[in-house]
């Protein structure tokens, strides 16, 4: 029987990062993955393939709508080759997954293919696709089994026309009308992909606004921009039934006035969030407790109810974000090594990779109001930047919320070109507990999108924005 210091179950961003950090810290490490490729949901059917399709569809939209204004003339009609677009996406996924395998080899981590299930707290059975089982012994284990798409109880997912994000990433045709149930990150990103490619897209959201967990200013601006791009929105609308008749999907719902409305399309993307995945883990055998939402129960050190077993990422409480899982993976490895790491969950940024991109970190304005915190606000529109005008990306803004008395930055929320990258400046500043004036006094290169962050900081500091 093979023996290890640490066994990691699941090879997504949390799992493989945890394995690498454990190996770096001198532990003999194994990673258990049920699929033949490493990387989990994020690399295989999540973050990476969706961004590949977002980029490809963005290039197509630019060619159709914007090349001419840049003085670029194309011979003939610009067409979408969906098969080739999907091939490129698959290639990007393959290269990225191969990169994780390289990292496992480089760090001398044993990759064990099969479903990992606990026999007891120190023994794990690994059943491969041929039905063969091997058992390993691990002094400590990290559960990093991630999540899977959630569903509504009355929806029968046929995975052909009533689909989840997994199937939406490998369609063989462009939908005529894609009905998207759920106005969160996944629904909006994939909705924009197919809208760019020519599909009619209708987004049905139960809450009163899209991306409801982010600052309402971002929600309002993103809705305005996507509406301009042709996406239709139906908020405060409760889906009651989804049925299929041949190639037609019929969605019935109650609108904000409790009146029944009906939507007809050829595809329905169900994107109502994700839920923890623990199937086959046999957590009970090890004594690991699971809460009523299916999440592994952990303490502040991400330790489960069993002292030598930890859990990270989507399978525990908190935002289901790849970078949150990565931080937790490193955190647990360092805890095991006797170090004293720290994660500030308030400073884990959230991003929507539509175009314009949406990003936020820290407290939203709604949260500050609810908590009774006195704050001041600084806003700056992207259209006021020379860089934005040069690229044509004039939609969006940056909003900084700072403590009214101390000027410490409490939240930064932005929508615009490259805000997924720009948010890192805000996270860095807030990790060092910077004030709005600190950012306002830092030189930002000109012309850049980042100047909007400086200008918003100036606006929060005695309303001193220079270019509005």
Automatic annotation (TrEMBL):
Note: The active site is a redox-active disulfide bond.
Biological process (GO), any one: 2-oxoglutarate metabolic process
Disulfide feature: 42-47
Protein residues bound to NAD(+): 182-189, 205, 273
Active site (catalytic residues): 446 (proton acceptor)
Residue ranges of domain Pyridine nucleotide-disulphide oxidoreductase dimerisation in the record: 348-457
Keyword field contains Transport: no
Single GO term (MF): dihydrolipoyl dehydrogenase (NADH) activity
Cofactor: FAD
Keywords: Disulfide bond, FAD, Flavoprotein, NAD, Nucleotide-binding, Oxidoreductase, Redox-active center
Protein name: Dihydrolipoyl dehydrogenase
Cofactor detail note: Binds 1 FAD per subunit.
Protein family per UniProt: Belongs to the class-I pyridine nucleotide-disulfide oxidoreductase family.
Biological classification of the source: Bacteria, Pseudomonadati, Bacteroidota, Flavobacteriia, Flavobacteriales
Residues bound to FAD: 51, 116, 145-147, 314, 320-323
Top-level class of the enzyme under EC nomenclature: oxidoreductase
Residue span(s) of domain FAD/NAD(P)-binding: 4-329
